[in-house]
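Hi Q.,

Before the meeting this afternoon, I wanted you to have the biotin prediction in hand. No need to reply - just skim if you have a minute. The sequence and ligand are here:
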Amino acid sequence: MQGRGKVFYRACGIRPGVDRGTRLGAKLLMLDVLESTNQSIRELALDGEHEGTVVVAEEQRAGRGRLGRGWSSPRGGLWFSVLLRPPVALSEAPKLPLMAGVAVARALKKHVGLDARLKWPNDVLVQGKKLCGILMESRSDGRLEYVILGIGINANFLISALPEPLRRTAITVREVLRRPVDRLALMRAILNELDAGYSAFCANDTGAIVAQWKELSETLGRKVRVETATGIVEGVAGDIDDRGALVVRTPDGPVTVDSGDCVHLR
Ligand code: BTN
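Predicted structure with the ligand bound:
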């Protein structure tokens, strides 16, 4: 794995094999500067790294976002990726980022009292602005070989550290709380929530994940415009189905959208 700065191998305060919160983050690699934690953990995955390993970086030089976009990752953020090897088919994978969104929102609520809401498919919003993005990348030959959940939280920097166009739509934990957050403790809280969600996922209890997502949703009931690979879908976000796809009520009837860029309209 390429990266600058010190490398630590550190147990995340979790005793492997004993409590809940055991599987994910038992091995935690902390680096100063990386291109992308998703890229680093992909290299580890291809080398046979075990499920549950986490890579976290202080700064990313080439952070990746959804839909081939970049992700601004200045110092002070919480940028990390988790390696999973779920024993399921590729078609099940889209529920994992939904599960991760729920885990982040719950941890933000429990750990720092933030009222975090979810925007389909997997943005975490606070005060209507983006605080966290989630990027899932995977490799499969029918059966999933690995899944990488990359989680980016605008934690302890000021919004001025982001490029101009993002400053209107993004928000940081530090600005909401008016103080910095303990990032390692927040990550541990997220990993504990992820661990519980992942257990439910592996036990095929995905109905619970979708139900939790709906409870935290900011999207359902809103007027939305979704840019998909095949065109724009505009209407009212009516539901997400049991696969995690968004059902939009349009003037021509319901349209189900598997993936795309969703904007909440006023
Ligand atoms: C999005 O576009 O909303 C998803 C952003 C995901 C960013 C995180 S930061 C940690 C991990 N490493 C990356 O390169 N991307 C993800």
